[in-house]
Amino acid sequence: MLSRFAFGCLLVLIGLPPRPAAAACPAGFLEHWDEVACCGLPDADFITVQLPLPVGPGTFDRVLLADFDPELLLPVSNGGDRELLWTNGFADAGDLALTPADEAGNYNSCRVRMETAFAANGDLVAAAPRAGVVVRHEGIGQGFYSAYAYVREEGRILKVRLYLEKYVGGAFAPLDLGPPPSAPFGFAANQNFRVGIEVSEPDVDGNSTLTGYLERLSVVGGVLQSEPLVVMTGIDDDFHLGQIGLYVEAGSIRTQVAFDECIAVAPAPPTPARGSSWGALKTIYR
């Protein structure tokens, strides 16, 4: 990993300010956003950021299972605890739910994994909802990495695809070296999925390896089952600082997306980026 001193000197040489010094990576944590804490903070302490869409934001609320459709998330998954329920209040809305900005330094250049279970209902054909997870959000108006599920009608059938991308300049874009959207999988209202992302520490060249994954969840004999659908990997060097959180977007006022088992993990001790050469990964995406 490039030292902060060397990295700062390099930025001075090219006329850019050095990145702020990072706080030490967590020794390891496992936090459930939707239940007791938000990465060690009281459960009210998360912030909502509106994406620059034409109309306006939706709303994130912590709710109990009894407060909304009990079929929206698996009873085995939520166990009667709190969920994060997002409702879009306008015809087109997109939002992030994130750790507070002053927490961003805690995850500067750290290896982090963020995942959530989610389900959606409402006018899904008109809404074409997206739901996913965010790492290394650099602040309001800045970029981040995301793995998200994109639901839309294909051939008059609802399908879901996984995307592993970065958000820059007010829109999603491919990673420097990254996969195309996944193959489509069947999707139905209230069906449960798990989506996650892991980002490595930057290597000596500042590149991080990103891995996104999507799983279908179901209950068989009263036991929660997971069916892996796809795993995708890419490389990028744009973002090192990072709030972590959730991303959601939908194009219809009659849409709800529920999140549960929102888990953030920083493996301990932090490990170097996995060994992958640009040449080797290019052969994967040809």
Indicate the radius of gyration in whole angstroms. Answer: 19 Å
What's the architecture, going by CATH?
Answer: Sandwich
Q: Shape, please?
A: globular
CATH class: Mainly Beta
Question: How many β strands by DSSP?
Answer: 18
| Portion in helices | under 10%
CATH superfamily: Exo-inulinase, domain 1
- How many domains in all? 1
* Count, helices: 4
The CATH topology annotation reads as Jelly Rolls
Strand content: over 45%
End-to-end Cα distance, whole Å, is: 28 Å
Low-confidence stretches: 1-23, 36-44, 269-286
- Classification by helices and strands: mainly beta
How is the main sheet built? 8 strands, antiparallel
Topology order in helix (H) and strand (E) letters: HEEEEEHEEEHEEEEEEEEEEH
Compile the SSE list and pairings.
Blueprint: H1 4-13, E1 30-32, E2 37-38, E3 41-42, E4 47-50, E5 58-64, H2 75-78, E6 82-88, E7 93-98, E8 112-122, H3 124-127, E9 130-137, E10 144-154, E11 157-168, E12 171-173, E13 185-186, E14 192-199, E15 208-220, E16 223-236, E17 243-250, E18 255-265, H4 278-284
Antiparallel strand pairs: 1-18, 2-3, 4-7, 5-6, 6-18, 7-17, 8-14, 8-18, 9-10, 9-17, 10-11, 11-12, 11-13, 14-15, 15-16
